[in-house]
């Protein structure tokens, strides 16, 4: 593998090899697109669409068929009650009724206002307003984030959301705005908790940013947790930003309570100026998850994506969450007070007479459309509607049926994989299992002893193993080196194949390692 090529680009080379044999099935466990999805919120989306179209057709009905108008809000809730009565057996309709009841009771949102916003969002007939997120939909998604990321942790509700085109757009917008507002400049240090999702490694080194990376290396032999020595690296005042994925990608391990407490203590006492980005996309697969966004609200910006848990990668649904009183805004104010940011504030002069008062989240929204196109910023309203329905499905599901099912599915695949390799491995409490890292040296040692493992890693690269696996068996996995894993390891997604597929992957991994072992024995005899 090239030292610079992304593991996702390397995957394409493996796909070409794996698909070159017409007489066998290819098994691609390289990418994390789940093969399961949430159906109830999608049914609700379709039911809302049907009602919304009926409302649109009430206007201009005297014109040719297919011509509608903007829905009228007067009497909308009453007309919906009639529609609901006529469709009361539909699963999606029961979901909508439960959602309207829940938001009135728990969030204080008038059902008529929420329904009107949902109907207009379904039709996509207005520009998103507010541009960061629709007014009634935002508190619903906030309630979902509190439920999934705070796990009972008591904190204030003073944070706002910016709905984005998936978590990848969120990453792009964050680095662009940090750079545009000079919160990060060329040569500044960014700390990354590694291993980490590849773009966090690649973006800082782009010519646009030229940032220096300081790694906080999680220890494979300590269940991928940070040691105190690694956390102490953050004492360096030159480090301006910390980025982490929690649960991690690719180890799929939750930051332990002790590591979370140590990070929280350091930030709140020694590094009150540190900006933090936590990417919590896999949090909903964990038990009793608490985010750094909950324990360090002042310093932390949170990225969350609905793609993985709800099987919605094609919808492109992500969120940036930031507390009103944040370190990001404090740093902006300090630069403005010192006169450093005069030209930066001028960047936003076309959208406000007082650019200095723009919060960092508001600047993110503006920068997402290069400021000049600020008037058309924001995630499309139908996307925001589906996102909100996903959030409502978890808020309504008090017994957590969907979440328990998703966890059970992922974890059964994990166990099947290791059983068929021949090295059953219990799933620790803090292991999520959306992905798993297979350390080839540890596998080789566990199957055939340390002498073989030493010979194997000394003579054969991880890339060679992956090419051989793809060529002989049609299986595609990702090299872990692209995620900054030091050990010779490969990443297996446990999200996108059925149980039989993971049983086959386990057997074929064992088969290829056994072939290398036979080669080792032959060389031992020859010598």
Provide a quick synopsis of the model.
The protein is built from 20 helices and twelve strands.
Topology:
Blueprint: H1 7-18, E1 27-28, H2 40-56, H3 76-86, H4 91-107, H5 111-123, H6 137-149, E2 159-165, H7 166-180, E3 189-194, H8 198-202, E4 212-217, H9 228-232, E5 239-245, H10 257-269, E6 275-279, H11 292-295, E7 300-305, E8 317-323, H12 327-337, H13 342-346, H14 360-367, H15 381-396, H16 401-421, E9 435-439, H17 440-448, H18 450-459, H19 462-473, E10 475-476, E11 478-479, E12 489-493, H20 499-526
Parallel strand pairs: 1-10, 3-4, 3-5, 5-6, 6-7
Antiparallel strand pairs: 2-8, 7-8, 9-12, 11-12
Helix pairs in contact: 1-19, 2-4, 2-5, 2-15, 4-15, 5-15, 6-15, 7-14, 16-20, 17-18, 17-20
Q: Can you offer a commentary on this structure?
A:
- The chain folds into 3 domains: 7-32 and 400-526, Aspartate Aminotransferase, domain 1 (Alpha-Beta Complex); 40-126, Histone, subunit A (Orthogonal Bundle); 145-171 and 188-334 and 355-395, Type I PLP-dependent aspartate aminotransferase-like (Major domain) (Aspartate Aminotransferase, domain 2, 3-Layer(aba) Sandwich), CATH 3.40.640.
- Helix 8 (198-202) links the parallel strand 3 and strand 4.
- Helix 2 (40-56) crosses helix 4 (91-107), helix 5 crosses helix 15 (381-396) and helix 6 crosses helix 15.
- By secondary structure, the protein is of the alpha/beta class.
- The radius of gyration is 25 Å and the shape is globular.
- The chain contains 20 helices and 12 strands.
- Strands 2-8-7-6-5-3-4 form a 7-stranded mixed sheet, sandwiched between helices.
- The model has no long low-confidence stretch (mean pLDDT 93).
- Helices cover 46% and strands 11% of the residues.
């Amino acid at each position: 593998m090239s030292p610079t090529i992304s593991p996702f680009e390397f995957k394409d080379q493996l796909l070409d090899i794996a698909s070159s044999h017409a007489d066998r099935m290819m098994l691609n466990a390289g990418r994390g697109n789940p093969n399961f999805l949430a159906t109830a919120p999608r049914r609700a989306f379709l039911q809302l669409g049907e009602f919304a179209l009926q409302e649109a057709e009430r206007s201009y009905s005297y014109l040719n068929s297919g011509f509608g108008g903007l829905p009228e809000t007067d009497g909308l809730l009453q007309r919906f009650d009639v529609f609901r009565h006529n469709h009361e057996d539909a699963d999606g309709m029961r979901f909508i009724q439960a959602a309207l009841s829940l938001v009135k009771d728990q969030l204080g949102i008038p059902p008529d206002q929420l329904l009107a916003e949902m109907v207009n969002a379904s039709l996509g007939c207005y520009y998103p307003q507010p541009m960061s997120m629709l007014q009634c939909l935002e508190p619903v998604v906030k309630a979902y984030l509190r439920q999934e990321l705070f796990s009972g942790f008591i904190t204030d509700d003073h944070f706002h959301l910016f709905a984005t085109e998936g978590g990848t757009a969120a990453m792009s917008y964050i680095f662009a705005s940090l750079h545009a507002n000079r919160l990060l400049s060329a040569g500044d240090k960014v700390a990354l908790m590694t291993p980490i999702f590849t773009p966090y490694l690649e973006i800082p080194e782009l010519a646009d940013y030229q940032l220096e990376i300081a790694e906080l290396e999680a220890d494979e032999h300590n269940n991928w947790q940070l040691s105190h020595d690694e956390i102490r690296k953050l004492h360096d005042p030159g480090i301006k930003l910390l980025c982490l994925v929690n649960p991690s990608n690719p180890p799929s391990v939750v930051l332990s309570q002790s590591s979370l407490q140590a990070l929280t203590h350091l930030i709140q006492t020694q590094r009150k100026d540190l900006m933090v980005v936590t990417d919590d996309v896999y949090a909903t697969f964990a038990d009793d998850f608490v985010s750094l966004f909950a324990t360090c609200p002042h310093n932390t910006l949170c990225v969350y994506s609905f793609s993985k848990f709800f099987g919605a990668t094609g919808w492109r649904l992500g969120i940036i969450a930031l507390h009103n009183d944040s370190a990001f805004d404090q740093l902006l104010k300090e630069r403005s007070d010192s006169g450093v940011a005069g030209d930066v504030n001028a960047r936003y002069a076309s959208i406000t007479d007082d650019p200095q008062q723009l919060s960092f989240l508001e600047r993110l929204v503006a920068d997402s459309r290069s400021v000049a196109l600020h008037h058309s910023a924001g995630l499309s309203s139908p996307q925001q509607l589906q996102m909100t329905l996903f959030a409502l499905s978890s808020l309504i599901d008090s017994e957590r049926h969907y979440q328990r099912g998703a966890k059970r599915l992922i974890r059964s695949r994990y166990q099947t994989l290791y059983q068929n390799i021949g090295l059953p491995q219990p799933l620790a409490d803090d292991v999520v299992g959306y992905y798993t890292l297979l350390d080839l040296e540890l596998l080789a040692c566990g199957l055939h002893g340390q002498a073989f493992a030493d010979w194997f890693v000394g003579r054969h690269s991880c890339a060679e193993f992956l090419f051989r696996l793809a060529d002989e068996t049609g299986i595609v996995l990702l090299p872990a080196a692209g995620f900054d894993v030091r050990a010779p390891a490969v990443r297996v997604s446990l999200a996108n194949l059925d149980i039989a597929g993971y049983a086959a992957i386990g057997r074929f991994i064992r088969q290829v390692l056994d072939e290398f072992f036979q080669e080792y024995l032959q060389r031992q005899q020859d010598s």
